[in-house]
Structures are given as structure tokens and as C-alpha cells.
């Protein structure tokens, strides 16, 4: 029986994949795996029984990934599963940033007792004029699952789109419209574009990347959308840029006290992925990743361990997380040979400082041999699946 601890509400479309071999819930203890959305695990005490974490979503900045790697905990996310939901909200935000839609709605609501509301509305509408997006320049920083969809859709809406992503994947490159222009660096986006939208993860390199110096490069009255993470922006600098009119609008999916009630700042409550379609997609993908890992040791869409998939053809499978260092495989193979155990299949892949090994055998591997493998230098943990 596998125990899966839920730390957020997860769509039943995914949870339904858990069969009678699984128990899941928010209160269970000594879990084998954790399934969550945005709940923070930074203060969480992981027991030695935790083998995997699945983030039903994209961003993993709520998870102490390095600490998990050190403990041999495989962290998964669900690439692209909520990208369309975010794209649609970003398109909405493009219009909200351009036309004074929110402000005008708020104003009309103040006319509740106005007997000549029709006339007053007509008279007041000139206060809410805003430009069309067609023909304007949009800069997309980060061309991953979301950025590509946003860039392509904005292009179809008649915008002149510039993209910047020095680490773009081959899949993203294939998916990106040929009409999207390649900015030579991020500053070109800041200097050139009327609208800027960021779609990068929050990492030590991207935190605070939208700051005073960058705002100074922007066109007067530029519009900035942030549906990626709040900490990409230095809030104090942002407030100054909005107050001076450098930015004519900031729309963000990440609430901060200092933004509340400020003119020309629109804050949404992290709604990007909150559609039934996206919640279902993420849950299905996350649960399938967890199940294949727990039941077969296969890894797909991990952010800290390599992708490994080996069909199950033997009685016993050893799943080994280890440091990426020389001689580990040789030592494991020798232990097998010394005990007359035959390896049927073996796969080893590395990723940065860590590696993952699957060893299949039809022989019974005694507990003392497992313990000797576990004790070897560089081995983090060993799991036996029968
Ligand atoms: N508002 C919401 O509800 C949601 C927010 N997000 C946020 O959006 C981010 C992006 O999501 P996806 O597009 O699905 O992820 P993704 O991993 O497909 O794309 C991220 C892209 O950013 C690029 N990148 C990384 N560092 C960069 C840098 N310094 N400069 C330029 N590009 C850089 C990567 O090369 C990659 O192509 C997530 O990490 C998450 O923080 C994601 C989903 C929902
Ligand atoms: O997938 C992401 O990175 C998100 O930000 C979505 O977060 P959520 O699952 O809606 O709490």
C-alpha cells in the first residue's frame, strides 16, 4: 500500500487513477509521496520514507529541490499541463492593461443611484480611453510552454512580437511562430516593446530581474504583465515606476500588500492555472508520474533526476539514487557478481550532481546485500520493487 499525502486540493480526474494499492489524504503520516500545487514545502520535515514529490503545475519554487536531491527524493512537475490556462489569462491581461476596463467597471458601479445612468455613462466614457494592441510591440521573456503560446497568440492578434530566451528548448523552438522576432538580449525587449510579459521560473538568477535599472530602459508608459512569480519584480522599484508613469500599467497574478488599492496596478489572486481543464490536466499528469515511479521506478518529468524508463521484464527491480561519481556502477556490479546474482537489465543516467540507476534481476536479492549497496560511498538510497 502506497501512501500519498495531499497538500492542496487536487482534481479527482487525477486522484481517480489511484487504485486500491493507494491511500491518499491530507492528514496521513509516514507518506511515500507528496502531491501538491503551490503549498510551500520549505519548512516541511521529510521523513526517510518520502520517495517522491509531484507538483501538479509548473513552478517548483515552493519545493526545496536541492534538499530533496540530497535525500534522493525525486521531484516531478507537469510541464505544459496548465500553459493554455495561463496563456488565456495573459491575453485577457493584455487587454486589461491597454483599455481601462477594470477602472471603467469600478466607475460604473458607483453610479448605482444615478437616475440618468445612461447619460452619465456616455459622458464619463472619455476618461477610460485606451489603445488597441494591434500593431503594438509585445516582448515575451521566457519562451517555454506558456511564453510560446502567448507569443503565437499575440502574433495572431496582430501584435509585433519579440521573444527572448537563451535556454529555449528544441520543442519550444519548433512550436514558436516564425513571425516572432528574436531579441538579441533582454534589454532589447525593455527598450523596444510597448507591452512586456514574463514567463520564466523563479530561480536565483531571475529573482529581482525586473528592477530599477530595467524599468529605466523601458519606453515611457510601457505596460508590464507578470504571471510568472511575484519575486521576479523588486516591488519598491515597481511602485516607483508606476507612480512616475514610466509604467502605465502593471498586472500581476501575485498579491503583495503594497500593491493593493494603487492606481494602475491590477492584482489577481494567482488565477493563471485555475481552470477545470488545467486542474484536470495537471492532476492526471502528476498522478501518472507518481504511479509509474512508485510502481516501476520510472522517471518522467522530474526537475532533479534524469528521465529513465525501462520496461519491467524481471522479477525484482532495484531503484538506486546516487551521486554522479565514478566507479559506483562497478561497485554495485561487483557486489552482484560476488553473490552470484545475475543482472538482467541495467540503466544508469546522470543529471548534474545526481544519477539514477535501475537494475533488474530474476534472483532474490537478500536484505544484507541491499544494505551493503546502501552503505557504499555515493549511494543515496535503494528501493526494491517486486
Ligand atoms: N500564474 C500561474 O498560475 C502560473 C505561473 N507559472 C509560472 O510560469 C513559469 C513558466 O512556466 P512554463 O512556461 O510552463 O515553464 P517552462 O519551463 O516551459 O518555461 C520557462 C522558460 O523560461 C526560460 N528561462 C529560464 N531562465 C530564463 C532567463 N533568465 N531568461 C529568459 N528565459 C529564461 C526557460 O529556458 C524556459 O524556456 C513557471 O515557472 C511558473 O513560475 C506557471 C504556471 C501557472
Ligand atoms: O503551475 C504553476 O507554476 C502555478 O503557478 C500554478 O499554481 P497553482 O497550481 O494554481 O497553485
- Count of helix runs: 13
As a whole number of angstroms, the C-alpha radius of gyration is: 25 Å
Strand order of the largest sheet: 8-7-6-9-10-11-12
Total number of distinct structural domains: 3
Uncertain runs are: none
CATH superfamily of the largest domain: NAD(P)-binding Rossmann-like Domain
Strand content: 15-25%
**Helix/strand structural class:** alpha/beta
What's the shape? elongated
What's the rounded overall pLDDT mean?
Answer: 97
Percent helix: 25-40%
Number of strands: 16
CATH architecture of the largest domain: 3-Layer(aba) Sandwich
Ligands bound to this protein structure: 1,4-dihydronicotinamide adenine dinucleotide, 2-oxo-3-(phosphonooxy)propanoic acid
What's the CATH C level of the largest domain? Alpha Beta
Main sheet summary: 7 strands, parallel
CATH topology (fold) name of the largest domain: Rossmann fold
Order of helices and strands: EHEEEHEHHHEHEHEHEHEHEEHEHEEHE
Termini separation comes to 13 Å
Task: Give a written overview of the molecule.
The protein has 386 residues and is of the alpha/beta class. It folds into three domains: 1-81 and 274-305, NAD(P)-binding Rossmann-like Domain (Rossmann fold, 3-Layer(aba) Sandwich), CATH 3.40.50; 83-96 and 132-267, Rossmann fold, CATH 3.40.50.720; 308-386, Alpha-Beta Plaits (2-Layer Sandwich), CATH 3.30.70. Helices cover 32% and strands 21% of the residues. The protein is built from 13 helices and 16 strands. It has helices at residues 12-15, 65-70, 83-98, 101-109, 117-124, 145-156, 170-175, 186-192, 212-217, 235-243, 276-296, 328-338, 367-375; strands at residues 2-6, 22-25, 33-36, 52-55, 74-76, 137-141, 160-164, 181-182, 195-198, 222-226, 247-252, 265-267, 316-323, 345-351, 354-361, 379-385. The two termini are 13 Å apart. Bound molecules: 1,4-dihydronicotinamide adenine dinucleotide and 2-oxo-3-(phosphonooxy)propanoic acid.
